Automatic annotation (TrEMBL):
Cross-referenced SUPFAM superfamilies: HydA/Nqo6-like
Domain NADH:ubiquinone oxidoreductase-like 20kDa subunit: 23-159
Gene3D superfamilies: NADH:ubiquinone oxidoreductase-like, 20kDa subunit
Protein name per UniProt: Oxidoreductase
InterPro entries in the record: Hydrogenase_assoc-protein, NADH_UbQ_OxRdtase-like_20kDa, NiFe_Hase_small_N_sf
Organism superkingdom: Bacteria
Pfam families (alphabetical): Oxidored_q6
Entry-linked PANTHER family: COENZYME F420-REDUCING HYDROGENASE, GAMMA SUBUNIT (PTHR42845), CYTOSOLIC NIFE-HYDROGENASE, DELTA SUBUNIT (PTHR42845:SF3)
Keywords: Oxidoreductase
Length: 271
């Protein structure tokens, strides 16, 4: 992954925001920036952002934000076209960086799902797998989360405007728990928690309210999932429970980490 950036060319750089298979939550995070949007609009020309305006201008774009996974044949062609028009491409959210919840189909028979869910499955054009954008085109930066964090998104856009690497930490949710003084739910209560292997960015919200982290920000920069699995089993989870715990927002990312073993580098980069 390319995490360095040259300053944008003279004049206001052009921003494009595109959606693939997703719930729109990460795009809404950009809209939720509210006060900051005024400042951003002075620095960026929002050329294409269907969630905000029907006035969509064609490329090329200096910065493209992509939400959602590649889940249909049309998506494959479309993401390649967008990449060819993008000077820098950043994927935002669990769907775009790891296939999302819809990647659960990767572990099942997608054809069987179609036959059960749709009355006329022959009209449905769908791939057998849901994959991250990086499986199809080069990606300059991945911003994880379900949804992404507002502050991290602003940091990525600001870094692009300044021509520098985004300052997105690679540490785990456990680090964030310590910073806010949250008692470890696993140590204190035996609550299963993915905090030790999950990328920080949510502010350790779930442990702060007494529940275990469930990994919505994907694998941390350096993870040791094989060391965590015995603790999950100690706290009452059998093999099926552990599988369900991991197979949610970032199912393909955590599967890759488990297969590769301890010490994997990830979040914000390869996952």
């Amino acid at each position: 992954m390319n995490t360095t950036s040259a300053p944008p060319p003279p004049g206001r750089p052009r921003l494009g925001v595109f959606k693939f298979a997703s719930c729109d939550g990460c795009q809404l995070t950009l809209l939720d920036c509210e006060d900051e949007l005024l400042g951003l609009s002075a620095e960026l020309e929002v050329a294409h952002f269907a969630e905000a305006s029907s006035d969509a201008a064609p490329g090329p774009y200096d910065l493209v934000l992509v939400e959602g996974s590649v889940s249909t044949p049309e998506h494959v062609d479309r993401i390649r076209r967008i990449r060819s028009e993008a000077r820098h491409l950043v994927t935002i959210g669990a769907c775009a960086t790891a296939g999302g919840v819809q990647a659960l189909r990767n572990h099942a028979d997608a054809g069987e799902y179609l036959s059960v869910v749709y009355a006329r499955p022959e009209y449905i054009a769908s791939l057998a797998t849901s994959t991250p954008v990086s499986a199809h085109v080069p990606v300059d930066f991945e911003l994880r989360g379900c949804p992404i964090d507002r502050g991290q998104l602003l940091e990525v856009i600001t870094a692009f405007l300044a021509g520098r690497k985004p300052d997105i930490p690679n540490h785990s949710v456990c680090f964030a728990c310590k910073r806010r003084g949250t008692v470890c739910v696993t140590v204190a209560h035996g609550t299963p928690c993915l905090g030790p292997v999950t990328h920080a960015g949510c502010g350790a919200l779930c442990p702060a309210y007494g529940r275990g982290c469930y990994g919505c920000f994907g694998p941390a920069g350096t993870t040791n999932l094989p060391a965590l699995l015995p603790l999950l089993r100690r706290d009452g989870m059998d093999e099926e429970d552990v599988g369900r715990f991991l197979h949610t927002f970032n199912v393909t990312a955590f599967t890759a980490v488990e297969e590769r073993g301890p010490g994997v580098t990830g979040a914000g980069g390869e996952g």
